[in-house]
Design brief:
118 residues, mainly beta, 4-stranded antiparallel beta sheet, 52% strand
Length: 118
C-alpha cells in the first residue's frame, strides 16, 4: 500500500522559512517523479514544484520560483520542500504527490497546513 506522509507544516511569519517533508512508502521511490501542490481556502489545488526521478530536474510554479526549493533524498525515500521568504499568500494545505508516468500524479498525501502571518 502506497503511503505519502507530509510533515513540517505550521505557522510562520512573512519573510520566514519552513521545510516540508514527505515520506514515501510502498513504492519504488526512484521510479517516481515527486511533486508538491497546495490548496488555499476557496481555491483550487495548484501545482507548486516537481522533481524528476532521473537527473533530479526541477520545475516550479512562477509564484514560488526563486523562493522554494524541492529536493529528494533517495536513501530516506523522502522529498522536501524548502520554503523561504514566505508570504501570506503561501498560506494553504500542501500536498505531496508521486507520478509514475507522464504528467499525471498517481498517489497523494493527506496534506499539511502552512499558515503565514503578515
Amino acid at each position: 500500500q502506497v503511503q505519502l506522509v507530509e510533515s513540517g507544516g505550521g505557522l510562520a511569519q512573512a519573510g520566514g522559512s519552513l521545510r516540508l517533508s514527505c515520506a514515501a512508502s510502498g513504492l519504488t521511490f526512484s521510479g517516481y517523479d515527486m511533486g508538491w501542490f497546495r490548496q488555499a481556502p476557496g481555491k483550487e489545488r495548484e501545482f507548486v514544484a516537481r522533481i524528476t526521478r532521473t537527473n533530479g530536474y526541477t520545475y516550479y510554479a512562477d509564484s514560488v520560483k526563486g523562493r522554494f526549493i524541492i529536493f529528494r533524498d533517495s536513501a530516506k525515500n523522502t522529498v522536501y520542500l524548502q520554503m523561504n521568504s514566505l508570504k501570506p499568500e503561501d498560506t494553504a494545505v500542501y500536498y505531496c504527490a508521486a507520478a509514475n508516468t507522464g504528467l499525471k500524479f498517481d498517489y497523494w498525501g493527506r496534506g499539511t497546513q502552512v499558515t503565514v502571518s503578515s
